Methyltransferase domain-containing protein (Bradyrhizobium frederickii), 256 residues
Amino acid sequence: MVWDPQQYLKFSGHRLRPAVDLLMRIPDFGPREIADLGAGAGNVTKLIRERWPDATVTAVEGSAEMVAAGRKAAPDVEWSHEDLGHWHPAGQYDLIYSNAALHWLPHHAALFPSVMARVKPSGMLAVQMPRNFLAPSHVLIGETALDGPWRSKVEHLVTPSPVEGPAYYHDLLAPMSANIDIWETEYLQVLEGENPVKEWTKGTWLTRYLDVLAGDEKIAFEAAYGARVAKAYPKNGTGQTLFPFRRLFIVAQRKG
């Protein structure tokens, strides 16, 4: 995927809120070495740095465009431009934080224990992932992909939800954890503008499909999805669009 920081940050306030909610649930245990996995444009990494100014913070991000934006937003952290799927650090961290990133990686049954193994004993793992993939906003992307002349090019992208339920992650991490807190929050996001749910997904999940297409076909796919999603999320009487969005949170302390 080619990430567009400006498109992603169109809804920066709504996207930032769960990241801050996760950050505030982490105990202030004085971490010295922190990794931010999938640091994006650096707006959350900056907050991590502000909360623990004496810590060494490493921001790991696979998008060159996001790294460039992140280095401007958080210049006083170490930026590592690398694919999260190939992240193999030499050492362990007191805190590994990941906001809205690990759902892009497959094989969570192996991934989450592997990431937890890179947390120091008594350290913390803090993760937030969207779990909105069965909502119309995301289901309609798949329906559009399978209903048009572009089907052969994009149908391989129509896959089951990449994020499991809370109990799944509890069972994965509990054997390695001294304590573990997992919860879900559904945010009722009040969006402004023309077809804002389309614009929201265009900053993330829809991008996977648009990147495969080009020219008039790309434009037609976006328009077809836009028509579907506008009907699913109509404006209310005041011209706003209500967009419920569920997210999964994990804060786990590794056994000492």
Summary: Residues 1-130 form a domain with the Rossmann fold fold (CATH 3.40.50.150).
